[in-house]
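Open question from group meeting: does this chain pack into something compact, or does most of it stay loose? Before anyone orders reagents, we agreed to write out a predicted structure and look at it together. Recording both the input and the output here so the notebook holds the full record.
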Amino acid sequence: MKRLTMLLIIGLTIVGFNQKTSAQGEAAVPFLLLAPDSRAGGIGESGSGLADNSAAIFWNPAGIAFLTGSEVSITHSNWLPQFNLDLFYDYLTYRQYIQEIGGSVTASITYMNFGEFVRTGENDPTPLGTFRSFDAALTLGYATKIHNDWGLGINFRLIHSRLSDKGAGEEEGEGVATSVSFDIAAMWRPAELDIPLIGDLSNRLSIGLNLSNLGPKIYYIDQKQADPIPTNFRLGFAVKLMEDDYNSLTYTLDFSKLLIDRDTTKVSDDRAEFYEAIFTAWGDQPISEELRDIVTSMGLEYWYGNMALDGFMFALRAGYFYEDPSFGNRKFVTMGAGIRYDLYGFDFSYITTDVFKGGENHPLSDTLRFTLLIGWGNTPSSNRGFPRGI
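Structure tokens returned:
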């Protein structure tokens, strides 16, 4: 059981949960919360309002309803390099618009490698062999417009977590768990919107909502120690501050909250199920605590170029991520850049916590995250004023 505990601690460290997290943890399989792509990583890990590329499968699958054509992307990043644990994260996405079904089919594969571990006896340090540990998820989805200004997206996810290939000591079974979850999301991108005192926001504003990782609790060896999966609520905004033939500047803002039963003193059977926790998680603490539990992230993305005229664009990005000191204390600044040439794209992002004192370190701090993508058959009108994400 010791190696399972160690692997759970590594997983919790990756997400950066706070000191309130108990030995069992607030939620299992925390890799499902990791910001997966470099583009959103460069704008403070805020993407549920923008959501105009294939990585929207994670941030807000409803955003894909406004896209045509096809796209495939892959992201790779090393995690916790300071510990030399051979941890890395890969994320593969695909989307395909199919006119006959009136929307897009989507898919993604998430893989978190925890590295290789040495197996020993319960009280004997003699090596008995090695095993590899990983978390993985396969997501399939569908996105479609339900109105000219509204998109809807749904995902189904198969989750597999392999922390150990067998129990330790008297434990029977394996440290392996499998479960399922689903997401439901909506996106509003008005083609015509003129707000008094603010101005014309037609094709410039986007508001998204995503309720992700809805599903049953998961356990490894002992069902009585089952933990909820990280059901998460996201509300995101994106507004195009300026745009001309060659320049574009977009501001993004996300709010997110973990919707789980935080009372880890209860036994598994007494803890709220996911369909209850998405309601009770808003009121199981005083309102001031509930508001502090909301994570805020924001960013700016600047594009220069014109794909239609030159077939080339490049981007600069910056962002900020804030989590209350009582609920994780993650604070970091992000930076990033990207290029698009013909069908191809490349993004990278960088995270630093050096500008803050007392904040929790991010597992990607002072490292680079890379994404490669290929998109074809896209049309600028397909995503209603946010074509530069294609």
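Observations to bring back to the group:
Confidence is low (pLDDT under 50) at residues 1-6, 15-25, 380-390.
Residues 2-213+231-262+274-389 form a domain with the Porin fold (CATH 2.40.160.40).
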